[in-house]
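Hi L., both proteins are below.
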Amino acid sequence: MRKISTDTLWDLAAAEVQNRNSDTSEDHGGGGDGAVSQRTVFIVGSKTGGKTSILLRCLDRDEATKPTLALEYTFGRRARGHNTPKDIAHLWELGGGTSLSDLVQIPITPLSIRSLSLILVLDLSQPNRLWKTMETLLQAAHTQLGKACSQTQAHAGAKHQASSFQPAARVLPKDYPDRELLSPFPVPLLIIGSKYDLFMELESDKRKVVSKTLRFIGHCYAASLIFTSTKSELQMSKTKSFFNHLAFGLERGKSVSFDSSKPLVIPSGSDSFIQIGSPPTSGVDIGSLHAKSPLDLWKKVYESVFPPESISENKELKDPAKDPQYSEPQVDSMRAQKDQELQQYRRNAAKSWKELELDT
């Protein structure tokens, strides 16, 4: 019997699915003729940034959106042609903004990284929180990808080790702009700037700072970048094209837009540092910023325009056990009974300690 390196029920189930589909592809979630492709898309981003709404629209699901509870899973299916098996996209959505970033370890595993893509949704209407959200979530995902890769290499047999997935070794095409200057994100990355309709209410100069900064970040990580609003059918259609490219391997649309007065649409490999230019330093003395790297310089310039806000998302999280939308009468009544028993136990324990103190 072949030994399985995982030790949780979830990992065992995932390993079984992986084994059953091990012959479907040797590429990123690919699949030969008639074979079913399975890809994983992990969606993270700003709290209340519209992640769920965007996901439902991309899946053509007419459902009422609800706040994402911690980490939620769904899936999508799509046929590549008539009378062909439907490809499957495993879709994970992280709620809570940055407060639950530790949960990235659940979707990002040694079993998922070969077919994994990341979507980062940033709320354009909250520019003061944008950089911190981006930085925290990308760092958490990058760290977990490194751990998953190490686990793969440690547990893989000699046959698989030579072809094991290595996030740090993501190779860009030789003609990719600024190829030698970039730090490609370990897996395909799509950055979505959401709530573009509200973003347009900002001053023109401030919109340029946000647009230019996200272009620089996207290019640094060899990511695609698109601005969108769920209130615009045209913008959502373009967003859906990017989503389907990651989830089902379909071709992306050919739309490209670098104009900061319009929604940005920049597929990976379309931008360059020359096109982006230098940081928008109006009123900022670059020499006084003492930046350690180009990315750090852009961060300091950005935060001089949009001072970071304190994000107290941990305190804002609600107890799902008290949320009416998740009510379960039988479970809730038993929970209330156990809470009363716990309180009674604590009172009795406190009395016992006081009596013990008096005796001594």
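That was the first. Here is the second:
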Amino acid sequence: MSAPGLKVEEDSFGTFFDEVRSVNVPVRRFTLKNSRNVSVQIINYGATITNIVVPDKNGVFADVNLGFDSMEGYTKNWVNPYFGAIVGRVANRIGKAQFTVKNETYHVSKNNGENHLHGGFKGFDKKMWEANVEGTKVTFSYVSKDGEEGYPGSVLVAATYSLSDANELLLEMTATTTKPTPVNLTNHAYFNLAGHDKGWSALSEHKVHVNASFYTPGVDLLPTGEIKPVAGTIFDLTTTKQLKDVLSWTPDDGYDTNFCVNTTKPPTMVLAARVYHPQSGRQLEIYSDQPGIQFYTSNSLPTENILQGKGGCYYTKHGAFCLETQNYPDAVNQPNFPKSVLLPGETYKHNVKYLFGIQNEDPSSCTIA
């Protein structure tokens, strides 16, 4: 039964050329709405979030999620940096694009120099998913076949989205497998709480808190295997920092860092990060049951106006942030990192809550928009 004020609407978002069948297949778009006029749109290409529309402190609504107006933007792989998509089979990097499971070594796609990134050349973000609506929830599912991008085992993955009247966007991801295989899913949404088109000038005003006392340092964005305390470093976001005050001090010209969330045992949903934009009053809190969260400040977006997004605007470097809940990068090759190999008979589970609210002038108070 649908909750009062909550609804799901479906329409078309163009077509996608299916190379296997050599035909164009329709892309379905689902709009989740609540009684507060907050809305989220998701398409079944990549189970991708295309729009998130929320109000500011004056009741003015804006889309705070970067993306494209048509399928053309999403399918141009050279311009689409995983906007809003579910990425996998393994999000983030696998060092040297190889790993060993049960004494057998597997070689996966090298799509990031010598490394493997976000599932390979055609990861989950570039696949058509099946979609099913049940009440106010939309579930997207996909079968990743044995050998896809070099991974062992056939994996059935599902991602269920729902929106509450408390302005919570809930995402539940699950997976099962026929052979032992690493699995690490995430959603790669890019946010700017001032509005998707406001760029660095607005992003610099954002204040960020990450609930992590440790991080995993790396070389060329690949973890060394160390787990270091954030205390005394530019990675200490346990106390809230304004981005314009810290970004220029980061070693990689911005954050692209896995933080080790201060989790519970056994894992439960905890606050992983909070971001606040004082000028609009918008606030985003992310809760997760995963051990890590990748904080990324769009360092690789172009410096020039060549990446055209929604409404004809251009997305540029440091124009948005990502907070990707996840296992630690390259966990399959790091024995001291959390377990990442899924076995037959087990179910991978990953829950995320994106809570949108309005922060009052009193920093201890946040209200639902």
